[in-house]
Amino acid sequence: MADEIPNIPGGPHLRTVAMPRDTNASGAIFGGWTVSQMDLAGGTFVAQRAKGRFVTVSIDAMRFLRPVSVGDEVSVYCTLKEQGDTSLAVKIETWVRDRSGTNPEKVTEGVFTYVALDEDGKPRTLDSTGSQLART
Questions:
Q1: How many other CB atoms are there within 10 angstroms of residue 17's CB atom?
Q2: What is the C-alpha separation between 79 and 136, in angstroms, rounded?
Q3: Where is the HotDog ACOT-type domain (predicted)?
């Protein structure tokens, strides 16, 4: 596991601040909120490659390393892990910085798999760059 913020051109695919309304009964940010932010970032990443509809089909190797706190700046980074004929596996890391903007720390990571869909909701083929193949 890397302990450095991913060096991705353009920076994170999503950046937000964890707010009190997002807490669980223990006072930490609800894990489901964090997963939702990751899926939103992954969706942005995949939309740029799939050039059309897609769905999240699985989340693998999800690990929560520490809780997110209210006020943390949450940044989500995506990198392509693997591409199949109709799917993209995306490694997604969530990092936080404290309110001063320092002390970055990874709080969770996982691999999300997305499948590209055609107009009828059926899997469609992607080309080698992740874009939809032209139909003839």
A1: 12
A2: 31
A3: 8-120
pTM, two decimals, is 0.89
* Cβ atoms 23, 61 nearer than 8 A: no
What residues have CB less than 8 Å from 1, skipping those under 6 apart? 106, 109
List b or e across 72-89, with b for residues whose CB sees 16 or more CB atoms inside 10 angstroms. Answer: bbbbbbbeeeebeebbbe
The DSSP bridge partners found for residue 58 are 113
pLDDT at 10: 85
Closest alpha carbon to 45 in 56, 34, 30: 56
Residue 15, Cβ neighbours under 10 Å: how many?
A: 15
